[in-house]
């Protein structure tokens, strides 16, 4: 069964039905028939509320194998490509699996490639935690070595790439994508943007790159201003489309 988020004040824990939670607040046995909204008590009488896991919760509680894609970047990918129910997505550079999980929870069928076997194993466990393991196929390997067989399969609606050799996949995007399909490339460094755009060539249209910046606002009695804490920039997203 799908895992639940157990909340007590600002504390959050993820457990599956039937599992045990041990904290300094006591021991809590999660019932097999737990429902979202249930209030559960530890053996010390401390209350926890069971909530359904949502996208931001997955970002916070997935086991990490590196820096995961931020929710704002995943949101831009989904917003600019329209990825959703019924779409077939080819993803490369699985990592923690945040983007793959977001896409699957929106209803897409995701095939994702991760070169590091240990990272791929973690991603598979994260997909189970997120309740999307039936819609995400985590494969171990370099996607560039499987392009010929992928081209021979049914076309993909969206390609999402977060690898150092993304440009090599972008070159094959017209063969991989269905008509009107999108490719998006996440680049941590500005130098790789040109490689992606050059790879798109004249075969893809609507080629655009955005820098992702987000600032949180601090509200106090003195006034309201952008927060001085944290880093607003995360990376660059390049989008292109097959005519």
Task: Provide a descriptive summary of the structure in words.
With 243 residues, the protein is of the alpha/beta class. The chain has two domains: 4-52, Vcp-like ATPase, Chain A, domain 2; 57-242, 3-Layer(aba) Sandwich (Rossmann fold), CATH 3.40.50.150. Helix content is 27%, strand content 35%. It contains seven helices and 15 strands. It has helices spanning 55-61, 71-81, 98-105, 117-129, 147-151, 166-176, 191-200; strands at 4-8, 11-15, 20-23, 26-29, 39-41, 47-52, 88-92, 109-114, 136-140, 156-161, 177-187, 204-213, 217-219, 224-226, 233-242. It has a seven-stranded mixed beta sheet, sandwiched between helices. A four-stranded antiparallel beta sheet has the order 2-1-6-5, with no helix packed on it. It has a two-stranded antiparallel sheet with strand order 3-4. Strand 10, helix 6 and strand 11 form a beta-alpha-beta unit. Helix 6 (166-176) runs parallel beside helix 7 (191-200). It is globular and about 65 Å long. It starts with a strand and ends with a strand.
Uncertain runs are: none
Number of helices: 7
Number of beta-strand segments: 15
CATH architecture of the largest domain: 3-Layer(aba) Sandwich
Query: What is the CATH topology of the largest domain?
Result: Rossmann fold
Structural class: alpha/beta
Strand order of the largest sheet: 9-8-7-10-11-15-12
CATH H-level homologous superfamily name of the largest domain: Vaccinia Virus protein VP39
Series of H and E elements: EEEEEEHHEHEHEHEHEHEEEE
pLDDT average, as an integer?
94
Strand content: 35-45%
Please estimate the helix content. 25-40%
């Amino acid at each position: 069964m799908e895992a639940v988020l157990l909340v007590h004040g600002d504390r959050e824990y993820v457990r599956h039905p039937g599992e045990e939670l041990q904290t300094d607040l006591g021991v809590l046995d999660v019932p097999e028939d737990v429902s979202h909204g249930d209030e559960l008590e530890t053996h010390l009488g401390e209350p926890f509320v069971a909530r359904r896991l949502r996208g931001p919760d997955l970002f916070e509680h997935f086991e990490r194998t590196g820096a995961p894609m931020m929710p704002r970047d995943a949101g831009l990918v989904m917003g600019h490509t329209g990825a959703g129910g019924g779409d077939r997505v080819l993803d490369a550079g699985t990592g923690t699996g945040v983007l793959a999980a977001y896409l699957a929870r929106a209803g897409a069928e995701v095939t994702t490639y991760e070169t590091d076997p240990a990272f791929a194993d973690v991603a598979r466990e994260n997909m189970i935690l997120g309740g999307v393991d039936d819609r995400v196929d985590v494969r171990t390997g370099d996607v560039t070595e499987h392009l010929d067989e992928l081209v021979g399969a049914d076309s993909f609606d969206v390609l999402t790439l977060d690898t150092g050799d993304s440009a090599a996949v972008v070159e094959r995007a017209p063969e991989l994508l269905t008509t009107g399909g999108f490719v998006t490339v996440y680049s941590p460094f500005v130098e790789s943007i040109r490689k992606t755009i050059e790879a798109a060539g004249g075969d893809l249209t609507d080629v655009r790159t955005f820098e992702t910046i987000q600032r949180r606002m601090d509200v106090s009695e003195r006034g309201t201003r952008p927060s001085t804490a944290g880093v607003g920039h995360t990376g660059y997203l390049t989008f292109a489309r097959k005519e």
